[in-house]
């Protein structure tokens, strides 16, 4: 009976998130427009300026648009993860988060479901983006579209967990602007999303080290390899470890006796 | 299982060193409607956050139908229906979708959930409007949906945190009547936080909270006798030394 309770609650949370997503068309369109602008405008402009050498998983010379596509997939998931956490801060301010928190289920499970729901939404967005990119003749091997799914689930969960963690620290919606400047942009720009590691190394050793250890880079590489039917073990272990660390910290952050609630409320 | 719907013992809580609740204690029996009366800042919302486990209980004890909220959190929360002060409905979803979400969180089977949703919405005259978006409903109707939602899993205690704030007089009256009728109908117990004295019925119990302390606790005649006053208004004024409600 208890397992059924968990099962129903999980589908309830995922169903609600998907319903909300479907009803908020602007959110869907903006989530899609952002990476497409990068692909059609930014990448097209840089096509001539940047030469991409042959490096795994690619077996031939590739266009910059092809290189940047996994990075833009990562961008979709990064923004989605942060958007989920933004909506959690909003929900907490507005009160609807309370309905979830007073459900008779362990808090870690409720947060986990929320994370799966957010990831499901981001995977949907990614496939639509890949569809548009395909029409623009940025094609991966056909099986790659299938292999990329588990990679997307893991990277989505890792970035979502980071968002959850941040939402447990942010007390007010206004503080969220800082997340844009101090989390999203540095994570995206100091990664392998836009340039390969060797290219970054040419300009700055420090930047190279940061990009190498940036969990977002690892998530992007996991996606990049999966899209070309290859498994990047290092990126997988790194992304999985980052997920476990972020998720554990987020659960602690939402624990009433250890985290956010204590800081907000103090003790007796 | 304990017969007491809610038991609060020796409960204290502070925000950054400032005491919000100081050794608060009272209990609610099944089928009892208890009004938690206090001026703004008395500690009502803090007490609700502790009963719903949004805050951690560090000093004192809270039990719901005999289940300790700290040690048996899930069993205790399953006994609880809550209507928060701010609306917690999803504005872009329909009445039905909002209620289904709640039944899923409580692990209810689809068939049972459907039946319970129909029962509760009919009781609140909202069944016909089940496919309307929450955004299309007025404040009074939204509140009805929230109360119906809080009752779907048949809790033994219904917590209402100033549910009539911002409503017009007829909506307010309707909700006060509905909730009192619910108590009359069954074994439901209610803890209703308010600062509006006209929401109190003669059969209700009263807990007067002021500056984090319980100033009076019991049936209305008992509180009036204690204070030597003839009306709740006067008794409240005396107990809170004229604090503004």
Automatic annotation (TrEMBL), chain A:
Residue ranges constituting the ABC transmembrane type-2 domain according to the UniProt record: 26-257
PROSITE patterns named among the record's database cross-references: ABC_TM2 (PS51012)
Transmembrane segments: 36-55, 67-90, 111-135, 147-166, 178-198, 235-254
Gene Ontology CC entries for this record: ATP-binding cassette (ABC) transporter complex
Domain of life according to the entry: Bacteria
Single GO MF descriptor: ABC-type transporter activity
Record membrane topology: Multi-pass membrane protein
Pfam families on file: ABC2_membrane
Cited PANTHER family: TRANSPORT PERMEASE PROTEIN (PTHR43077:SF10), TRANSPORT PERMEASE YVFS-RELATED (PTHR43077)
Annotated protein name in UniProt: Transport permease protein
Species, as recorded: Methylotuvimicrobium buryatense
UniProtKB/TrEMBL annotation, chain B:
Coiled-coil segments: none
Keyword hit for ATP-binding: yes
NCBIfam families found in the cross-reference section: PQQ_ABC_ATP
Keyword ATP-binding: yes
Residues annotated as domain ABC transporter: 6-236
InterPro entries in alphabetical order: AAA+_ATPase, ABC_transporter-like_ATP-bd, ABC_transprt_ATP-bd_su_PQQ, P-loop_NTPase
Name of one Pfam family that matches: ABC_tran
Keywords, sorted A to Z: ATP-binding, Nucleotide-binding
Annotated protein name in UniProt: ATP-binding cassette domain-containing protein
SUPFAM superfamilies per the UniProt record, alphabetical: P-loop containing nucleoside triphosphate hydrolases
GO molecular function: ATP binding; ATP hydrolysis activity
């Amino acid at each position: 009976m208890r397992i059924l309770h968990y099962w129903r609650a999980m589908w309830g949370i995922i169903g609600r998130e998907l319903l909300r997503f479907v009803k908020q068309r602007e959110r869907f369109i903006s989530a899609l427009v952002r990476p497409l602008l990068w692909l059609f405008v930014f990448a097209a402009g840089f096509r001539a300026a940047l030469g991409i050498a042959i490096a795994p998983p690619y077996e031939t010379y590739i266009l910059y648009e092809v290189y940047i596509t996994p990075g833009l997939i990562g961008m979709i998931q990064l923004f989605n993860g942060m958007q989920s956490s933004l909506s959690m801060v909003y929900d907490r301010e507005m009160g609807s988060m309370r309905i979830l928190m007073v459900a008779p289920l362990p808090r870690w499970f409720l947060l986990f479901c929320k994370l799966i729901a957010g990831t499901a939404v981001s995977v949907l967005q990614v496939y639509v983006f890949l569809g548009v990119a395909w029409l623009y003749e940025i094609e991966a091997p056909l099986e790659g579209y299938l292999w990329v799914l588990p990679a997307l689930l893991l990277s989505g969960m890792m970035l979502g967990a980071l968002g959850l963690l941040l939402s447990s620290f942010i007390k007010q919606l206004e503080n969220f602007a800082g997340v844009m400047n101090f989390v999203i942009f540095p994570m995206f720009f100091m990664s392998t999303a836009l340039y390969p590691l060797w290219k970054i190394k040419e300009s700055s050793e420090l930047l190279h080290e940061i990009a190498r250890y940036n969990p977002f880079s690892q998530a992007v590489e996991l996606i990049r390899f999966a899209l070309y039917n290859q498994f990047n073990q290092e990126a997988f272990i790194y992304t999985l470890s980052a997920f476990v660390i972020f998720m554990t910290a987020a659960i602690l952050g939402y624990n009433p006796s250890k985290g956010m609630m204590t800081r907000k409320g103090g003790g007796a | 299982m304990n017969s007491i719907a809610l038991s609060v013992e020796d409960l204290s809580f502070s925000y950054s060193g400032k005491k919000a609740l100081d050794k608060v204690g009272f209990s609610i029996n099944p089928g009892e409607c208890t009004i938690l009366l206090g001026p703004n800042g008395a500690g009502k919302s803090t007490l609700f956050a502790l009963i719903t486990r949004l805050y951690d209980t560090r000093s004192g004890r809270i039990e719901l139908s005999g289940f300790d909220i700290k040690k048996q959190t899930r069993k205790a929360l399953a006994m609880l229906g809550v209507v928060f002060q701010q609306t917690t409905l999803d504005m872009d979803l329909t009445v039905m979708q909002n209620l289904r979400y709640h039944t899923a969180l409580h692990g209810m089977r689809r068939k049972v959930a459907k039946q319970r949703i129909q029962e509760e919405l009919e009781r609140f005259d909202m069944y016909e409007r089940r496919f309307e978006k929450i955004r299309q409903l007025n404040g009074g109707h939204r509140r009805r949906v929230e109360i119906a939602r809080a009752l779907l899993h048949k809790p033994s205690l219904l917590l209402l945190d100033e549910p009539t704030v911002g409503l017009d007089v007829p909506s307010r009256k309707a909700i006060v009547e509905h909730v009192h009728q619910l108590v009359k109908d069954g074994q439901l117990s209610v803890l209703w936080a308010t600062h509006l004295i006209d929401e109190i019925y003669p059969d209700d119990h009263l807990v007067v909270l002021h500056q984090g302390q319980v100033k009076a606790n019991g049936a209305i005649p008992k509180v009036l006798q204690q204070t030597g006053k003839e009306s709740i208004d006067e008794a409240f004024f005396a107990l809170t030394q004229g604090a503004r409600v």
